[in-house]
Amino acid sequence: MMVDLHVHTYMSDGQHSPEDVVSMAWAKGVGLLAVTDHDAMDGLDEAEAAARRLGVGFVPGIEISAGAVGDGKLHILGYYVDRLDAALLRLNAEFARQREEREDMIYGRLRDKGIIISKERLRRNVKGRIVSRTHFARVLVEDGHAADFADAFDRYLSEPEMDRPKVSPERGIALIREAGGVAVMAHPSSLKMSHADLDDLAGRLAGMGLMGMECHYCSYGREETGRYAAIAEKHGLAVTGGSDFHGERVKPRVEIGTGIDGLLSFTDEGIGETLEKLRGGVGGRSAPKKGFKPIEA
Ligand code: AMP
Ligand code: MN
Ligand code: MN
Ligand code: MN
Fold first, then answer.
1. pLDDT tens, 98-131?
2. Residue 121's pLDDT is what?
């Protein structure tokens, strides 16, 4: 069975509605799907209802950006998080607020370059609570300032201070765990680490509560997946996989279920059950830790 545990909808920076993403997955033959929007859980109810209608297995998720680790970036996927978890909702709201501040800054930076985009125009395409740089990229392409999304990012949207808000790895993992979820390291290649350093980091993150690693990814070949899987196994982390599908306009080569040029081949249909078990821990869902302080990141 084709499994894809990493897709985005227009509730964050994806192109399609949650319902459409599920339909597309179903049409491609994906039997188990996770929706993992950045800093948002708003698409999960709609996606879950669509998945139930179509008979697609569904795993609710989220993707959180953790601080830069070395030269690379650490993203953490949270599976089976409680959509009503107060601390996680507070974090999402705070990140949405920071993104609004960034939005105002980006209008200014573009104006300095002679490009005027009105807030009204930009907001027309914002369906969720998050204003993403991809919303700017879309308008920049529509107005002929960039050839495609990648070009828009290269030319206008890659200044360091435009980076999205982040939590520390510890906080990211703790938040997901406290929300009853399973924390999984996304696309380990983004960390840009040597095998030995990644091995070391995975061990430390496992000590903080990390439970899985996304060893299968849209762009990984068999050999690369094997290297990550060896690290995952060593540290007792579940091996997961997903395409990171955002829609053809945002990431033109990445297809749902199969990734880039069919490189993704993740077929572990037991992974949903494995994640559900991990979420529960021994003897049921882990109780919130006493004195846990929600994060005002
Ligand atoms: P934001 O979360 O608003 O800071 O926007 C970052 C998102 O934009 C990433 O999660 C990607 O989905 C997308 N993105 C980043 N770089 C590029 C690029 N070069 N081309 C297309 N999309 C990109
Ligand atoms: Mn994205
Ligand atoms: Mn990511
Ligand atoms: Mn992603």
1. 999 999 999 999 999 999 999 999 999 999 999 9
2. 97
Q: What is the pTM of this model?
A: 0.94
Contacts for 265 with CB less than 8 Å, ≥ 6 apart: 216, 258
Q: Which numbered atom of ligand 1 lies nearest the CA of 154?
A: 19
Buried b (16+ CB within 10 A) or exposed e, 57-85: bbbbbbbbbbeebeebbbbbbbbbbbeeb
Q: For residues 79 and 278, what is the distance between their CA atoms, to the nearest angstrom?
A: 10
* Residues 199-211: tens digit of each pLDDT: 999 999 999 999 9
Taking the C-alpha atoms of residue 9 and residue 293, their distance in angstroms, rounded to an integer, is: 30
Q: What is the pLDDT of residues 26-46, one digit of tens each?
A: 999 999 999 999 999 999 999
Q: Look at residues 175, 155, 153 and name the one whose alpha carbon lies nearest to residue 163.
A: 153
Contact 33, 51 (CB under 8 A): yes
Rounded to whole angstroms, the Cα distance separating 59 from 170 reads: 23
Rounded distance from Cα 290 to ligand 3 centre (Å)? 31
134 Cβ closer than 6 Å to some ligand 1 atom: yes
- The reply to whether ligand 1 has any atom less than 6 angstroms from the CB of 135 is no
Judge contact between 256 and 16, C-beta under 8 A: no
On whether the CB atoms of residues 13 and 128 are closer than 8 A, the answer is no
Q: Evaluate: CB of 12 within 6 angstroms of ligand 1.
A: no
User: Domains of the chain by range and CATH?
Assistant: 92-162 (1.10.150.650)
Task: Judge if the beta carbon of residue 246 lies within 6 A of ligand 1.
Answer: yes
User: From CA 37, how far away is CA 10, in angstroms rounded?
Assistant: 8
